[in-house]
Each structure stands twice: as structure tokens, then as C-alpha cells.
Amino acid sequence: MMPAKLIPIETATKDIWAKDILAKGEEFHFSRSVLSRARPKALHNQDFYELFWLHNGRARLVTPEARLALNEGDIVFLSPGHPHGLQGVGEESHIVNVIIRKRRIKEVLARFAEVAQVFPGPGAAPTVVHRDMRHLSRLSAAAKALDAAPRTALYLEAFLLPLIAELASEARDQSVAMPVWLNEAMIAAEKPEVFRDGASGLVAQCGKAHAHVARTMQASLGMTPSDFVNGLRMDYAARQLRGTPDSLSEISEEIGIQNMSHFHRLFRTRFGMTPRQYRVKHQKGVAQPI
């Protein structure tokens, strides 16, 4: 799973709001449609999360950066703040679409970090994954149940979490093929004394040139050494925020990030909220720092 590789284009944008699609009390919207073959006159921006998949045919995902070809079985995960449009290609292009309130994904992300593998932070490029016919058949059955269900958080999570768990499991299985030296270095990098040195701490554990480590990680995991280490740092920071009274500056220093703005930006990208908001939401019975 990795962000789509994009080629620059330019186009106008318009806004679409969750309040215009979701009725009061609805946490998600489900729809099936056939895409128009006309090129989008304008891309649309949105304040909600969204996923859709191409059930049949071909399509083109248009963003400010690129036109990305989609084929039957491709699932696209979209975050707020990244304009896009869709165009059918060839014969009838059938898509299944799920629109989700922003707060729902933020809450799920706060509990399951794996969600960040498919739903990137606000403004980030879409994530595209492919499902073969066996997986697509299972997804279609789950979609049928979702379509018939009440539009509540319970039924949304019953659909969404198994899908994300399946994708995360596949990503983990793919990582088995990585070199032993990289696997061992990544395990070692889970220790604060290693990850507080950033990407260089991980590379030092590998005993290889930085460029070689970066190429190998990109090929094996679809991420850079910095991406991986920053994920470890933010997960550790989240645990400290939940379980200790340490100040934000102390936690930031402990994970090796001296710039508080950078810390806040990384944390918000991973968890969809600031460190302080995360602490207030998750910390119970722990004395708050002055």
C-alpha cells in the first residue's frame, strides 16, 4: 500500500461538504453509480473521508497532480483537502462509494494506527490498492451488508476494520521477504535509544549505506527510513501521552524531535489531532503537567 505516483496537471476546484450529503445522525453514505465518460470540468474538494472501488470497467482518477488509470478491483482511499475528480473510461464503469464523516476516521485512527496506512493525513495524495477477484467478491458481500445496515458507527466499523486489517496483514506478509539485516534493524529501531536519532539511527543498525537502506525499504515496504522511524516516534509519543504526566516538550525531546512544530505536524498526520487533544481524549486518572 502506498500513495499513488502522480504526474502534474492543472484544473479548477469546487467544494463539497458532508452536511450536504449526510443526514443528521448518519455517519456514512453508501452509493453505487456508473461514471460519466466526460472529463471533469472541475475537481472537487471535500471535508470528509471517502473510499471507493471500481467494481467493473476502467476509470481515471484526476487530481491537481495527475491523471491516474484505475482498473477493476482498484480501491481508492481519499482524505479531506485533496481535490479530485473521476472519469469513466470505455464501457460502463461501475463504482461503489462510501463517504465517511471526518470524526469517524479520526476516532478509529486514534485506536488503530494501521488505519493511517490507507487513509493518509488531510491534504495527502490518495492511496490505491488492488483486489483480485477473490478479494473483490468478499468486498462486494461486505458492501451489500453495509448498504442494508443503519448508517451508524457500529456498522461502518464492522465493514471498515476487517478491510483495513486484511490490507495490513498483507503488507506484513510482504515484509517477510525483506532482507534479514533490514528486519533486524527495524526491530532494533523500536527502542527509544535508536529511534530518537531519526533515520540515521535506523541506518546505523543496518550497517549499510543510507541510499541502499532507503532503496530496500521503498521496495519492501513502500516507505522511507524517515517514514518508518517517525511512525515509531509518534506511536511512542502516543503511549507517553496516554500513560504519563510528562509535558509535551519532554516527550518531544525523549523521541529526538527538538522542533515542537515538527512534532505537532507529525503527530497530527498520524493521529488526526494534536498531542494535547490526544492526551485529553485518552488520558484517565493521570495527573496533568502544569
Automatic annotation (TrEMBL):
GO terms for molecular function: DNA-binding transcription factor activity; sequence-specific DNA binding. Residues 202-281 form the HTH araC/xylS-type domain. Gene3D superfamilies: Homeodomain-like, Jelly Rolls. Keywords: DNA-binding, Transcription, Transcription regulation. This is AraC family transcriptional regulator. It comes from Celeribacter baekdonensis B30.
